[in-house]
Amino acid sequence: KGSDITLTEGFHQSYLTIELVDSGQGTFSIRVAPNPVHADLTVFLGDVGTETLRLELYDRSGRQLDLLTVDPAVKLVSIDMFNYPSSTYILKVTSLKNPSKTHSYKITKVN
């Protein structure tokens, strides 16, 4: 809202969006970039109010690879994906106060 943020990885970074897989109940103001990702996936947590969030990263087989609990004061989270193989991953963002508020994002990892 009102700020333009540009992330680059290398010098040939096209503008791509993250595919929202499941919007669950309720909304968050969250952006995830870049996609595809090579090393660091950045999660921009906008207007989440007083919600403490749980961020879970899953591989294609459903195995949980990462779990983060994020305080509402935090507005930016970086997830290191450098050592993961090229594949499709799911980032699930859930409110701890209201678990029905869940969003899932399809992330593409490239090497």
Break the fold down into its secondary structure elements and pairings.
Blueprint (H helix, E strand, L loop, with lengths): L18 E4 L7 E4 L6 E6 L7 E6 L5 E7 L5 E5 L6 E9 L6 E8 L2
Antiparallel strand pairs: 1-8, 2-3, 3-6, 4-5, 4-7, 7-8
Textual characterization of the structure:
- It contains no helices and eight strands.
- By secondary structure, the chain is mainly beta.
- The chain has a five-stranded antiparallel sheet with strand order 1-8-7-4-5, with no helix packed on it. A three-stranded antiparallel sheet has the order 2-3-6, with no helix packed on it.
- A hairpin with a 5-residue loop joins strand 4 and strand 5 (64-70).
- The chain is globular and about 35 Å long.
- The termini are far apart.
Shape: globular
Q: Give the tally of β-strands.
A: 8
Q: What integer is the average pLDDT?
A: 82
Structural class by sheet pairing and helices: mainly beta
Strand order of the largest sheet: 1-8-7-4-5
Strand content: 35-45%
Indicate the low-confidence ranges by residue numbers: 11-19
Largest sheet: 5 strands, antiparallel
**Helix percent band:** under 10%
Number of helices: 0
| Element string (H = helix, E = strand) | EEEEEEEE
Distance between the termini: 32 Å
Q: Radius of gyration, rounded? A: 14 Å
